[in-house]
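Q: I'm building a small set of examples for a reading group on sequence design. Run inverse folding on the following structure and report the sequence directly after it, with nothing in between.
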């Protein structure tokens, strides 16, 4: 067991629910650090991969959660999280977990759902933390994720040493739901800025600019942003960007469409007079409904180019 794990108040057993693209490598990093983990996933392929990584697996979520100090969820959506907490055709995890269990949700879900999940957990006598991530599968494998955390201060101190085993930046954003709020705001910036960068490159092409010339200027001028300098949507200027491998993700269009729908929900529920966020959401919904779901989100540039006269 590592120093961190040995001294963490959350050192007890972690029930890790959802061992997919992200959860699998995250749980493997906890095991490598010497933490006690028991996993559960309903999909046999995920179970096999987890067992191969040395993660002990339970046959039900209840079996894993009943004996855990921390119930960590890494699930596709807020509905999955709320269904698991409350139960669908029987008791939910909140009613079978030991009192004062720490429910740690790392999935990306609606801010309102995160607040609802936290209220339910607290009402059932537990603790709640929302800690969505950025960094993708590569970050999950390397243990370099950024965690955006919504938690009471004492719960943040409890989970921080655990999160440090899976990530390199752990940011306490505020109370319950604040982690999801930070995630949704960040990804709205990302979606909007990628569209802007892609439109600028297509305009540059029409105006006779080389990609390199536009990159050399914008990356050192006021157009500078992550969508340009790290995930550049044209091949060449940034050799590691997905554009150089035919837009293999990276960050898939389906995930960007999902995150922008969460941003749209948050914009609507708060009444913000936004124009760009909702437009970006429509653009990425259309991209994901076509062949963009499995392509990197920077592939939006090919749609813009194809539609241009
Ligand atoms: P995934 O679909 O690969 O994995 C989700 C896993 O949850 C699946 O294996 C599924 O079988 C399992 N599952 C579903 N219901 C369950 C239940 N009740 N109990 C236990 N397991 C259950 O998805 P992913 O790519 O790993 O993403 C997980 C979350 O992380 C999502 O909310 C996603 O938006 C977010 N996220 C993903 C990325 C990424 O690059 N993939 C990046 C940042 C955040």
């Amino acid at each position: 067991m590592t120093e961190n794990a040995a001294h963490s108040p959350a050192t007890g057993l972690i029930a890790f629910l959802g061992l997919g693209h992200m959860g699998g490598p995250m749980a493997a990093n906890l095991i490598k650090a010497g933490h006690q983990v028991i996993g559960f996933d309903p999909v046999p392929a995920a179970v096999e991969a987890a067992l191969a990584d040395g993660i002990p697996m339970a046959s039900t979520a209840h079996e894993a959660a009943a004996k855990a100090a921390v119930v960590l969820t890494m699930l596709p959506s807020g509905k999955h999280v709320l269904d698991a907490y409350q139960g669908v055709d029987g008791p939910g995890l909140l009613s079978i977990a030991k009192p004062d269990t720490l429910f740690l949700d790392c999935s990306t879900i609606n801010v309102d759902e995160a607040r609802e999940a936290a209220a339910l957990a607290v009402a059932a006598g537990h603790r709640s933390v929302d800690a969505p991530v950025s960094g993708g599968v590569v970050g999950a494998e390397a243990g370099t994720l950024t965690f955006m955390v919504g938690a009471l201060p004492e719960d943040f101190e409890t989970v921080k040493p655990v999160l440090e085993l899976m990530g390199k930046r752990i940011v306490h954003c505020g109370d319950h739901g604040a982690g999801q709020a930070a995630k949704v705001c960040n990804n709205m910036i990302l979606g909007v800025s990628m569209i802007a960068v892609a439109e600028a490159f297509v305009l540059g092409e029409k105006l006779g600019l080389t990609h390199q010339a536009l990159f050399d200027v914008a990356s050192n001028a006021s157009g500078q942003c992550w969508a340009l300098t790290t995930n550049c949507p044209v091949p060449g200027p940034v050799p590691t960007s997905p554009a150089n491998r035919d837009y293999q993700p990276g960050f898939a269009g389906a995930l960007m469409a999902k995150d922008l729908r969460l941003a749209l929900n948050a914009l609507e529920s708060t009444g913000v007079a936004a124009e760009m966020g909702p437009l970006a959401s429509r653009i990425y919904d259309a991209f994901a409904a076509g062949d963009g779901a499995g392509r990197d989100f920077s592939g939006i540039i090919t749609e813009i180019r194809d539609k241009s006269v």
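Residues 204 and 214 are 7 Å apart (CA to CA).
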